Amino acid sequence: MDWNFILGIILQFVAITVAFTVVLMIVAYTVLAERRVLAFIQGRLGPNRVGYGGVLQPFADLLKFILKEEIVPDKSTKFVYFLAPIVAITTALMPLIVYPFGPTLTLPFLGEISLVVARFDVGLLYVLGVTSVGVYGIALAGWSSNNKYSLMGGLRSAAQLISYELSLGLALIGVILISGTLDLSSIVEQQSGWYGMRWNIFFQPIGFIIYLISAIAETNRVPFDLPEAETELVAGFHTEYSALKFALFFMAEYVNMFTVSMLAATLFLGGWNGPFISVLPWLGPIYFLGKVIFFLFLYIWIRGTLPRFRFDQLMNFGWKFLLPVAILNIILTATLALLGWI
Q1: Positive or negative: CA dihedral 256, 56, 48, 239
Q2: Which of 205, 208, 220, 204 has the alpha carbon at shortest distance from 163?
Q3: pLDDT digits (tens, 9 = 90+) for 113-170
Q4: What is the pTM of this model?
Q5: Nearest residue to 137 (alpha-carbon basis) of 264, 226, 250, 300
């Protein structure tokens, strides 16, 4: 029996468990942070009764979801109706295994510890492929609920994803041209120059802005939250969902926010790189989580300040503005790379 192989499997399982637990805890407190920040923007207090300053509010919400009555529409397509939230949360969680949370650390008694669960050559392609499947959960939920509002939300989400997924993918090509690899860990390591500050955002500012806008649209957040516009579609694709099934959709949205924030930090802001990282490598995970939290705060800030687009404005912006600018950015980056200026 190969004990090293078994030990490797156990360590991988522990790493996946730790990564998912940390991410889900951050997601839970992102919901609390959003409610408190939005309350501050609107001159309110927000949740502050359950625990000191409301710190136990996420657990109270989870308990409420568990205890609420399950309501299933009579004429819904039952199998697909139950499958849709599982697809949504699964595709949201799967990309987490390829993100490098920090550099390889050397710990006493444990030796070298790699802070990435799975590293392979096409990690970026894997992330884009898995996240693209997430729209199936939304589309299936809208169709299987047998509700016109839900169906309209699902159709809107599919159209929105097709429109902005293109711009998002093209925005990343500039980084790929500079790095010459699809391995996320290698892309981060290549940004370690300039004392940990040689980030791709300095070479790809246009690509970063396109990615940021497209990522907000991909996650159906304000001002691109047309698939679940409360004033038009009640709650959009999850109108007919309740209790834990609704909680899975709710969680999937915030995990997707976390995922695209991690991708932005990895590709454009140097990942775990930062000042003094060569001397104090344990700062890597702190830098990385700090950058991710910055993007999450940006999401919340935008939600509290911007109005929702009309659907025709959303489509025109994606196809007539973002897409041409993304193509021009690729041409410009390729030209500069060919001339040796990047």
Answers
A1: positive
A2: 220
A3: 888 888 889 999 999 999 888 888 888 888 888 888 888 888 888 888 888 999 999 9
A4: 0.91
A5: 250
